[in-house]
Specification:
With about 300 residues, the protein is an alpha/beta fold. The chain contains four helices and 15 strands.
Length: about 300
Amino acid sequence: MRILAVLALFIMILLLIGGIYVFWLNFPTNLEYNTYVANATSHLPAQSYQFYSNMRYVHSNITYEIAPECSAKKRENIQDAFKILEEHTTLRFFPAERKGEIVFFCTNLPSEPESSGHFIAGEGGPTQIINTTSYAVILSGKVSLYRPEKCERPIIALHEILHALGFDHTSDKKSIMFPITDCEQDIDTFIINQINTLYEAETVPDLVIARVDAKAVGRYLDFEISVANYGLTDARNVTLSLNAGSELIKTFPLEEIGLGQRKMLTVRNVHIPRNVESLTFSVAVDSGESELLYNNNQATVYLQASER
């Protein structure tokens, strides 16, 4: 009888110790992690002749259409301007089967500033832009060729096409982007180099973890994360992974993040190891796709010293 009592006492002590251990593991200690915010401007150019930094079309092969009212001479000027750009840059221009990315109009009067779909510059420019942070992606542009060409070279057509490519006026009188036309003007070497640099980038997405806020209560993590697409096309089959050290805690499907869009995810009560010093969040597209950059796909938050 005494042996049974001792055994029962021993079992009770073990249960008590186990209960204390479980309580210790799940004691609701508040743990705050530092907020992670991505540096969104580190890659932007220091100098640009464009309306906004990094303006480009989705592809280096740009489609166009010319309105029926354009005369044979103006059509020739447009084609000659394309040839000059193709000779100096990686851009290529193709007539559109349906709707072109750049549309040419040939009228006798300048467009009204308040008219629908008016461009940024007075006679040519982008008409639809998506700001992805890394790029100002031009989806469409217009050119209005109402002035007659007085030079042998297609100075006016080239000037307006460069507006449609996102380039602003310059103060250099020798530049083709000077506001007043001169037959001796030419394309700046800087503009040529900028076009070639802009269109070196592949037409792929660029996932970025823009912000992370995280806190834990005991062994349960709450977090809010913002994932953006700074690239040049939609990101499909996006997955978010959460790691504590080398241990994968959980994955979360984010599905598709469109060009220039961002997706917010709020998660509650994710079970993690106790007193985790750091948490790493990482995002990736489907294994068959590539990205512009990979060093912005990961964010690590650290336990704040004051809360340890």
